[in-house]
Amino acid sequence: MDNKIALNAVAGSGKTKLIIKKLSLKKRTCIITYTTANQNSLKERIEARFGYFPPNIHVFGYWEFLYSFCVTPLIERDFSGIIFDLNIQSQIARKNHYNTPSIYMNKYFLTKTFARWLLNSKIQYLDRIDYFFDQVFVDEVQDFASDDLDWITNLANLNIPVLLVGDFFQQTYSTSTRGNKNKGIRSDKERWLNKLHSAGFHVDTTSLIYSQRCAPNICNFIKNSLGIDIRSKKNTNDKQVMFVNKLDEITKIMKDDKIVKLFFKNSSKYKCRSTNWGLSKGLTFDDICVVLNPTTFKAYNTHQLNTLAPTTKSKLYVACTRGTGNLYLVEDKQIPEEFKA
Predict the structure, then answer these.
(1) Does the 214-339 domain belong in CATH 3.40.50.300?
(2) Which domain of life is it from (predicted)?
(3) Measuring CA to CA, which of 3, 17, 81, 83 is 20 to 30 A from 213?
């Protein structure tokens, strides 16, 4: 369908910017995303563009959209909400001999089974979406997993235009998991793209292949080391990738708050301006320092970064593409004790 498009784009190529550009004051627009951080970021950017938040534009968190828009207005039944806690959901599964119920105690939806329940229901939520909106955008589509991926691709059955945007290699989050449902698809780019195509989306993998954020040398490093095809739109090649192993230089970087330090996890345990790899998604800095944990340092040292586990590889890719300037690489073990909380 010409009005059902799935756009796979590289980091920093302007995915969200494209959505913002397509908005107007005349079309009733629905935007769906997974993380709260991205939902808030979208709202801020929309308000920045128009000078206020237009009443015809609605930005929904995924679970919010399923529950408050697709279900509760269309069903004569009272629900008490959604259970997000995975430990509680595991307890429920064990009590039911691992046959997880779609609705718990006739009151609560579970994130693991909500989308499957909705897909199998007779609720006419697609008609409701068609009635209230003129277009639908889904941002960070790579975050949708398991039955939620089936639900997102089911939007191809809408009559109105639908645009999915995302980056397969930025899978640092998963909406939910249920056994091996769609697990293989999310670990193989071609299978993932085929899933979108088979659902009825025109898959575009070329329009946004150039990063407007990262310099050529950084893109070349990512392409050669991680095997991810990312190219730079910048002409100047004055930014570098540098592995730093001298104590005085590492100390200087750690003290420089202009250089954001990105850790695999537990960034709060270090006395510096920092965040975690996965949490940095959607953010842009100048110079950055990616701190390599033992696993990624070993892979870097043996030129095997491309063999990292998919989730680790995705988080490293996200971290390395956060900067507009230089990319410094430092081994975690070499960080001086004075910077550890």
Answers:
(1) yes
(2) Bacteria
(3) 3
